Structures
1.
Amino acid sequence: MITTAAMLMSGHGVSQGLVCAPVARLTPPATTDPEEAPGDNPAHEVQRVREALAQVARQLTAAAADGGVAGAILQAAAAMAQDPALLQAAAGHIGQGSPTAHSVTLAIDAYCRQLRELGGYMADRVTDLEDIRNRAIALLLDVPLPGIPQPGGPFVLVAHDLSPADTAHLATSDAVALLTEAGGPTSHTAILSRSLGLPAVVGCHEAARLTDGTPVILDGRTGTVEVHPTPQRLHQARQQSQATPQHQTFGPGRTADGHGIALLTNIGTAADAARAAAADTEGVGLFRTEFLFLNRREAPTADEQTEAYTQVFRNFAGRPITVRTLDAGSDKPLPFLRLPDEENPAPGIRGLRTARLQPDALATQLSALAAAQHHTGAQLKVMAPMVSTPNEAAHFADLARSHGLDTVGVMIEVPAAALRAGDIIRHVDFVSIGTNDLAQYVMAADRTHHAVADLLDLWQPAVLSLVAQVGRAAADLGRPAGLCGEAAADPLLAAVLAGLQMSSLSMATPAVATVRDQLARLTMQQCQEMASAALDASDPDQARTAVQKAISQFS
């Protein structure tokens, strides 16, 4: 337990902002008793489990109704709750004499162990399964559902990690910041906190020691958490946190000397599109189309896809929309593709590589995108994920153009693609760097494994070196190179990226205004000097310090 003495914790700051509030822990799940008397009628108990899992699926589907990236993930979790294998496994334990609720624990925990052993994306799905287990058990035992607490005022939510169902309720809760023991800079919690505009620190192992009501100052920029701050420090931080930022710039992003840097938004669903379209952004730099179909067990038809894309495109009349084709596999499985199980899915069959096994799925999507563009007149740009070679880039470009799509690009996420960027760019109209996966592959660090989260710091000089190489290659060929990874949401890092010749930056919508203000205060030469300072550093901390020192000299 934390004493009342002031102390400092640290983790990974993944969503900027300063918050002063007491903490409240996620409501713990109920536990089951293996010694509880089993039901008299096994068939009746199996039916109770069936109804509980069905109700969990309905709860998750209802929570997904608000849309957004969290909504898409919830739809996938709802499909997991309806998997007949879960009911079958629980029924087997009931048949062996186990208590009903404990049978659910045994069944789902067995699946969780299997997923942890597989690692990678499959291990990341354990959180979703545990949430399904906890909800079903609460229903069977008739106790309160685990999840977001309601302490009666603003609070910092503390948890080991957050499930998609938890994050879906954050927007309507009194939570003003997130603090988790697990997670890294590119985890789902990090991405969702940015999309909600909530300050967040993840990967803070010491957070497990915090008890409800403990006052903290959480800084989502530095990743620090001050516990039991002094009254003077608390007063100072409250004044700082309550100061409303007065954004000085509007419209297109540009540096102080007029160099344009397009500021775009990342979206995943129609709900995301509606919210982003109302903001002061220049368009969409990343439309994650797979989030529309995460819960589908049968392939969506061309007409269904056309309708979905049309709904999104209509929000951005007159503004460009960059669409990423289905990035299935690894941490985003699409059941209807029926991809094979893999021991190490992150470098396996994912992204564009799925077309090697399911070429019709990509062809159908390209046809639907072309039809939606025809219906809406959208300024459409299409790019493929997980491209590794010039031949892959050329093949995708030819295929997309054969479907009537004029502006075609690829994502740079694989080190090989960054190292041979010039050869790849010759075949396409633009490239966009995905820093989340690029960092994962450059640093050989699984983005779902919190134990190596420090290696995924997007200030890693090795990652920035490859970004610089792509920027130079694109500039030499006179073609645009943008960045749509999480790095773009950090205002200081955004200036470095501008200095690395990124022509556009795409990020969560709440981050756009702050990044635009930052760029407007700096000339392109200053951005380039900051970029050089970051590249000369030997580690992320040195890179930040060097850039902060450089920018202080410009003031």
2.
Amino acid sequence: MAVTATTPAPRPSAAASRTGAAAVTAALVLLVAVLAVVDITQGTASVGPAEVAKALTGRAEAGDASVVIASRLPRMTAGLLVGVVLGMAGAALQAVSRNVLASPDTLAVNAGSYLALGLAAATGISLPLLASSGIAFLGGLAAAAVVLGLSGLGAGTVRLVLAGSALTFGLTAVTEGLLLLFPQQTEGLYKWNQGSIAQNGFDGVLQMLPIAVAGLVGLLLVARRVDALALGDDAAHGVGVPVRSTRVTAVVFAALLSTAAVTLAGPVGFVGLCAPALVRPLARRFRAFTRSRARLPFAGLTGAALVLGSDVLLRAVVPDDTAVAVPTGVVTSLVGAVFLIGMAAKARDTAGAAPADRLRIRSRTVFVVTTVTLVAVAIGLAIAAVLIGDTKLLLGDVVNWSQGRAGQAVSFVLDTRVPRVLAALLAGAALALSGTLIQAVTRNPLAEPGVLGVTNGAAVGAVVLVTTVPAAGSWTIAGGAFAGAAISAALVFGLAARGGFRQNRLVLVGFGVATGSAAVISMLIILTDPFNATKALTWLAGSTYGRTMPDVVPLALVLAAGLVCAVARRTDLDLVSLDEDTPRLLGLDLSRARLGFLVLGVLLSATAVAAAGTIGFVGLVAPHAARALVGRRHVRVVPVAVLLGAVLVCAADLVGRTVIAPAQLGAGLMTAVIGTPYFLYLLVRSRRAT
């Protein structure tokens, strides 16, 4: 059999590459200039292009000149600066980590800065802009160091995204707790966190400009050494490049750039991810863009085009009075989420599934003792949660209340407290069962409703009703939450099913859906009135505050049905969690079984979100702990995981409403504080196993 050799197409010459790169750069500069001009002409005031031109030449009326000089020009300049620094920061972070998904968002730089500024604001001390910038820099740099240390450099996209998203979730939960505890001191911080380039004068731009210039110059000075890192650590050492110091220096400069953007406009999401990704195809065509000294500025220009383009698009599509209230960062986050989902769907997944837990054989005695102990703990915790609070009660009060013989004060306390305790117990159990089903179907021990975007999707459906129909009942909110969760799950699992729910695609699509859902939630909260916004924020914190018995009924019914189904189909769960071939050999319709378990998991997660808000990591921690205690057979894992989930959420709710009484923290904030370190520990353990 003859084999015909094909001659590869010759690469363009260096001169042709430089000419093509110059032409592309000129076109991009022209695009940015056009977007800048259009952005200046947009706004609520009736100041068109002619008035803008007169204002720039000093011939406009006082009112028009004030609008242009004090508002529109600073907004456009801030968009340019933020886009440039974020684009270059993202390109630098991707180069030094050798990871195409590294960015200020995925490395939790923005979340670290958010928490640092939240802590500073909670103290009530008014800080100048430069001091705030320093605090944000330290917080963002510390978060990036943690994520890079846990994920490892060049260790793959999934571990970095998981570490970054987990740390972001935990840090954001703590910050939102500060927002609820110190509403006056932190007023405006939530809206700032969505990222807006609106400015009042040039003061902010002028103060951040030296910081941005320092970061840009620093990155360009280490550009040659950064290029050497692409050859690998050993090769870089061989040519005399200090690998560790180069990485640290580049990360510090990238964090400095991110800090300038965050301080000026808040976290403008995903510009640092999308801009370098748009440059990569050009680098394959034009060799000039393979060098950092050319690629970094081009990524900066691309970032400027993304920020200004998002602002122009927002004001062109949305009415002017509404567009003013919607931060540009919400639009860039939505664009980034779509971009990430598309990139994940097309990516070749070569990593395989995550390392499974080691097979553990536990005796029946261990299972019985564990179950009895957890039942006793759950009962004791439930009793304590009913008795302890801002008003302490006795068991006799509860007995009298159950018989209808309690006084008015005791009846009022128990009428509000008992539904809260039941909602916490049932929500924890439902989330744990949902996580157990999803981990079994995907054969991925790091899969969980929150990590995969299902929880955020359910939150979108519920928040739509909370903010637009404040009088909506529990069944209506549950239906909205299920609709949102169903849409998210269909997108995530539909795209990830190709190739057998491989870890890369599943996690990346889930991360994109969760990010897009979070942006939609932010927009809904910002556009609604302050009363509904506070109500939605409290609900998003995973609070059981104000729950009544009708709110608990849908969750109780779905949980009962889920438990019956999981126990009845426990053998199918064991088979589905093994591999692709064994279930088919034994006659199990694998596709139908997967679909059924996934629908049940989504339903459980959605009703839990509707009843208790967004509570993260329970669906991850409870199944893991259950398998560690009683082995991997689902006839034992299911009841133990359900009990663990109920205990975890009930304990979190009890601590949240008693430790700083009369103020309260949502159960979701408490589980995030517990679950984030555990999740990061699992990442470290899986890295060692790999």
